[in-house]
């Protein structure tokens, strides 16, 4: 088999065989296929597409390119959750302890933030001493002991995807459904869960800018999951405005704890209940979504959900008092308020602009090596549809550096669009694909 023939076949719109796909994934992983051939192939895929069968084969080949986690020693149905990423998306911080408190074992690997999308692992490090790197045995033992552990992704998982994703990033070949779907699903499959809940974000602050694209991606991922025997459900949710009020690591942790206690923002609470209840359903713990919601609401109201997060923080080296006294989390030195210049209604809050401004402030990173400032970020006071009067606070900025604050304010610029008319309602959840 020759890589050049595979590139030509795809370039001319052909369908690759399982063996050809295995050959290119093996060759790229072991270095015998060079970057230039792999990038030519990725561009051919972007232009000609892949069938569902090819996408499934690519996913399985990448999932098998490195270590695969075996969660079979944990009892019960293990349900994983994945978000395609967004601004202010702290859902995992809430959902993981919440569904664990209900009785679903959560053994979750999460990523760090890159670009304007935050990452769960960075956020968790707001708890002083919190360990995100654990041995396989520590990770599994913690799930056996307390039902939940969230750690950083192992370096040996899906090396083919790691190389290919880095290559796509610099060759204009990220934006294609078969490659995105296989990239995400290969990691989920290698991470070992029995069932997968996908939160596919759509809108200005997301990868997928319109509903049609998001639905195509969601369907492709659900099809892959089904093909490989992992029950998969996708929720398509809005990312035109940031999720909740807080954007920035420690600020998001505070909001996540408030949400676990049943005092969270309306949109975040709704999303968490919607995702969490479906995870309980996938895990066979409840018979209906409504039953799942009621269970989760009860865990929030009784404080059991917050206690589960505190247990996780303690088990991973942090101090559980940080969960009960949020003033102990990193705090910024400078608090700056941005006020509205006119009366009206918030027509839009550009999630992408808020995300970029948070990176400028130091809350996110542009390269993998960049350090981040856990304390800085934004707390929105108004969301889309809210009435606002001139002089009222729109956003509180938490900063640690005057110069970065000024640059972030410039970046934030026109993120808020104020109109004289009430904007039409925008759904939080557009569709469920199963
Ligand atoms: N996230 C991934 O993990 N892979 C992609 O290709 C896109 C988003």
TrEMBL record:
- Tell me if Iron is a UniProt keyword of this record: no
Q: Which residues form the Pyrimidine nucleoside phosphorylase C-terminal domain?
A: 345-419
SMART domains assigned to the protein according to its UniProt record, in alphabetical order? PYNP_C
Keywords linked to the UniProt accession: Glycosyltransferase, Transferase
Cofactor(s) essential for the protein: K(+)
Family annotation (Pfam families): Glycos_trans_3N, Glycos_transf_3, PYNP_C
| One GO cellular component, as annotated | cytosol
Q: Which InterPro entries match?
A: Glycosyl_Trfase_fam3, Glycosyl_Trfase_fam3_N_dom, Glycosyl_Trfase_fam3_N_dom_sf, Nuc_phospho_transferase, PYNP-like_C_sf, PYNP_C, Pyrmidine_PPas_bac/euk, Thymidine/pyrmidine_PPase
Task: Quote the SUPFAM superfamilies the UniProt record gives.
Answer: Nucleoside phosphorylase/phosphoribosyltransferase catalytic domain (SSF52418), Nucleoside phosphorylase/phosphoribosyltransferase N-terminal domain (SSF47648), Pyrimidine nucleoside phosphorylase C-terminal domain (SSF54680)
State the EC number(s).
2.4.2.2
GO MF terms held by the record: 1,4-alpha-oligoglucan phosphorylase activity; thymidine phosphorylase activity
Which Gene Ontology BP annotations are present? pyrimidine nucleobase metabolic process; pyrimidine nucleoside metabolic process
From the UniProt record, list the reaction(s) this protein catalyses. 2'-deoxyuridine + phosphate = 2-deoxy-alpha-D-ribose 1-phosphate + uracil; thymidine + phosphate = 2-deoxy-alpha-D-ribose 1-phosphate + thymine; uridine + phosphate = alpha-D-ribose 1-phosphate + uracil
Q: What does this protein do?
A: Catalyzes phosphorolysis of the pyrimidine nucleosides uridine, thymidine and 2'-deoxyuridine with the formation of the corresponding pyrimidine base and ribose-1-phosphate.
Q: How does it assemble?
A: Homodimer.
Question: PANTHER family under this entry?
Answer: THYMIDINE PHOSPHORYLASE (PTHR10515)
The UniProt similarity line reads: Belongs to the thymidine/pyrimidine-nucleoside phosphorylase family.
Q: Can you name this protein?
A: Pyrimidine-nucleoside phosphorylase
Its source organism is Brevibacillus parabrevis
């Amino acid at each position: 088999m020759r890589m050049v023939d595979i590139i030509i076949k795809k370039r001319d719109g052909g369908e690759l065989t399982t063996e050809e796909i295995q050959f290119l994934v093996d060759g790229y992983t072991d270095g015998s296929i060079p970057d230039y051939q792999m990038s030519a192939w990725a561009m051919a895929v972007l232009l000609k597409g892949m069938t569902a069968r090819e996408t499934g084969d690519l996913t399985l080949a990448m999932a098998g390119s490195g270590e695969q986690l075996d969660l079979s020693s944990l009892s019960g149905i293990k349900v994983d959750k994945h978000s395609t990423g967004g601004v202010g998306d702290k859902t995992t911080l809430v959902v993981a302890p919440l569904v664990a408190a209900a009785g679903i074992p959560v053994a979750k690997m999460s990523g760090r933030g890159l670009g304007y999308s935050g990452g769960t692992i960075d956020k968790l490090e707001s708890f002083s001493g919190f360990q995100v790197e654990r041995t396989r045995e520590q990770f599994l033992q913690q799930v056996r002991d307390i039902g939940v552990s969230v750690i950083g992704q192992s370096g040996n998982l899906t090396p083919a995807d790691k190389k290919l994703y880095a290559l796509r990033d610099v060759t204009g070949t990220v934006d294609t459904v078969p490659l995105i779907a296989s990239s995400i699903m290969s990691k989920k499959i290698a991470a070992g869960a029995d069932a997968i809940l996908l939160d596919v974000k759509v809108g200005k602050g997301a990868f997928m800018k319109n509903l049609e694209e998001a639905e195509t991606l969601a369907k492709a991922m659900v099809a892959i999951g089904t093909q490989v025997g992992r029950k998969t459900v996708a929720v398509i949710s809005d990312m035109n405005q940031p999720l909740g009020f807080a954007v920035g690591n420690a600020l998001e942790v505070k909001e996540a704890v408030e949400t676990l206690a049943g005092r969270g923002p309306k949109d975040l609470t709704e999303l968490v209940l919607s995702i969490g209840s479906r995870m309980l359903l996938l895990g066979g713990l409840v018979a209906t979504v409504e039953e799942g919601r009621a269970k989760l609401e009860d865990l929030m109201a009784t404080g059991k959900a917050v206690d589960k997060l505190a247990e996780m923080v303690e088990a991973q080296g942090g101090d559980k008092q940080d969960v009960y006294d949020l003033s102990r989390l990193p705090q910024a030195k400078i608090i700056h308020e941005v006020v509205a210049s006119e009366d009206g209604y918030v027509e839009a809050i550009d999630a992408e602009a808020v995300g970029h401004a948070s990176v400028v402030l130091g809350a996110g990173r542009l390269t993998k090596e960049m350090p981040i400032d856990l304390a800085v970020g934004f707390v929105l006071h108004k969301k889309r549809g809210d009435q606002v009067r001139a002089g009222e606070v729109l956003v509180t900025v938490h900063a640690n550096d005057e110069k970065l604050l000024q640059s972030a304010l410039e970046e934030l610029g026109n993120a808020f669009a104020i109109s004289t008319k009430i904007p039409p309602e925008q759904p939080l959840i557009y569709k469920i694909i199963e």
